[in-house]
Amino acid sequence: MPSELRYPSAMRDPTEKPLAIVARLEAFESKPGGRLFIGFVLTTLIVAAMLLWWFVFGFWGTLFDPGKPLGISFDGRNHVTLVVVLVFVIIARRWVKREEERALAGFGADSTLSREVVAEVIRRAYISTPRARAVSISTGILIGIVIIALTSGEPRSYQTLAAWDAHHVWAVVNNVLLFSVMVQSAFYATSALKALDFILGAISEVDLLDRDGMARIGRFGFPGALVWLVGSSIASTLAWGMQTVWPLLAILFATLVIATVSLVRPVQIVRVRLSEAKEAELDRVRARINAAKASALEGDSKAVSEASLLAGLIAYESRIDSVREWPFDVSTMVRFGALSLLAVGSWLGGAVVERVLGAMLE
Known about the structure:
Blueprint: H1 16-29, H2 34-56, H3 74-109, H4 115-125, H5 130-152, H6 166-201, H7 211-219, H8 222-235, H9 246-298, H10 303-321, H11 330-361
């Protein structure tokens, strides 16, 4: 037998090594505390780079202010917060992707699609297209630059080159990265919803009594909503002591809208099918109830057996009628409501905390 063909290293698939690294990273992330550790290391590295940048360009003194809480200046606190938000979004988005992939694979197992087709649909949902990357980067650049000017209280100052020092450049780069990742996450969320719509459309029959299955659909968008709400809560500290906060409040409103859409949109996809299936099943069982009732009342040969079915049919009708067309379970709604209140409360309470700490230090 001929020996096994061996390709020289120069002819190996160039994506083999990167894919192996990604696989190892995902394996480490899946371990308890893995994501937290990666987030901590990444945050530490970026903050260290920021401090080195501040030191090299002579802005070290701007990080400290004895009149501010903990002696940290407004700029220092905000830049560290931006780094934390950036790392959180990156790590959390990877977690959301993993959860969505698991959910889509589970729905795919219940569909008429082959395993290979489901895997390909899921894979394509998380491919970043050139158009998506271009829109993400351009939007990140636009928002990253504009929001600094709008929240500074002196937007016209950034029309001159004097304002574009190393301090400002770091802030712009950090903002551009943050908003680019956020916009890219929105693209991934849209693609995931398209994949969900396609897979759910291939499920031949809706089991109205499968409440666990319905709840799984209701929970599909919760990880994404969780990321937007928690990220918004972390970012709320950016408003402490800021001269102009309305641009940040606009972003808060946008994150709440996106979080709500992330939760509700997956259910909207299946709601029409649920409503149609429920109506059809109710029509069928009511027709059977009417037939059993007529047979029992007429006293024909099947009267006894038909009469014995009535109680079960009526109970079944009640069970089907109680099926929610919006398949959210109570725990999902409670958690989403609590996180929404946390996000809003963190922004409103931040101003109070700032003033209390300021009064204590006076």
